[in-house]
User: Which sequence fits this backbone?
C-alpha cells in the first residue's frame, strides 16, 4: 500500500526514533500515507458483511480483491483532500522535529 521503507535507525535501535525528514514533500507524503491507512481501516467494516454471490456478484474473486479496492478508495479520498487528518499529522511531525531553544540561565547577582 505504501512505498515507505523503514529507516535503518528504526531497524537497528532498541528504542525507535522518528526519522528526520525535510519540511517539504516528505512530511506531507508520510502524513497522507497515515491518513490513507486510517481511512482504509475505517472503510473495512463497511464491506465486512456484504455477500459476493448473486447474478452481479464477484464471488470468491471479489472477496479476495476487496482489500485492494478498499485501499484504492482510501488512497483516492486522501489524495482528494482527505478528512483533514493528514494536516494534523503533518503539523505534529514538524513540531516533533523542531528543537526548542532553551534560554540560558542568568546568574544571580552576588
Assistant:
Amino acid at each position: 500500500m505504501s512505498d515507505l521503507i523503514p529507516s535503518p535507525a528504526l531497524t537497528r535501535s532498541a528504542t525507535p526514533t522518528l526519522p528526520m525528514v525535510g519540511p517539504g514533500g516528505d512530511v506531507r507524503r508520510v502524513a497522507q500515507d497515515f491518513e490513507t491507512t486510517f481511512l482504509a481501516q475505517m472503510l473495512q467494516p463497511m464491506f465486512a458483511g456484504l455477500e459476493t454471490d448473486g447474478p452481479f456478484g464477484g464471488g470468491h474473486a471479489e472477496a479476495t480483491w476487496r482489500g485492494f479496492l478498499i485501499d484504492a478508495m482510501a488512497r483516492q479520498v486522501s489524495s482528494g483532500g482527505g478528512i483533514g487528518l493528514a494536516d494534523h499529522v503533518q503539523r505534529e511531525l514538524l513540531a516533533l522535529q523542531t528543537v526548542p531553544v532553551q534560554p540560558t540561565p542568568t546568574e544571580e547577582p552576588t
DSSP finds four helices and no strands in the chain. Residues 59-79 form the longest helix (21 residues). Residues 33-47+57-95 form one domain. The two ends are 64 Å apart (CA to CA).
